[in-house]
Give the backbone structure.
Amino acid sequence: QVQLVESGGGLVQAGGSLRLSCAASGSIFSINDMYWYRQAPGKQRDLVAAVTSGGTTNYADSVKDRFTISRDNAKNTAYLQMNSLKPEDTAVYYCHAVVKPSRWSTVRDYWGQGTQVTVSS
């Protein structure tokens, strides 16, 4: 079993910064892509940023030049550095990872429980 645990959310004023972490633990042979999604109340869950095992990144247009996704493969951890935060960034942020639990298994999708980010105006 694989667990993803997010941390780093909280309340911040507009223009401020937060750094989210997503730590994967459990039965892990390798981790392919890692993602951050977010879901605001009454809205669908949207992709924010993605990072491959090789470090290639991709971002939603709404967060480009403000957010930075990174990962530490040795620690099985992904990060999301969020700068110049806006009230519209308020949402629950979820980590998603594509994991190969063992050498002989197929890849599987895992999600964290989410961490709340609230940006006040």
Remarks:
- The longest strand covers residues 30-39.
- The mean pLDDT is 97.
- The chain is about 0% helix and 60% strand.
- The two ends are 40 Å apart (CA to CA).
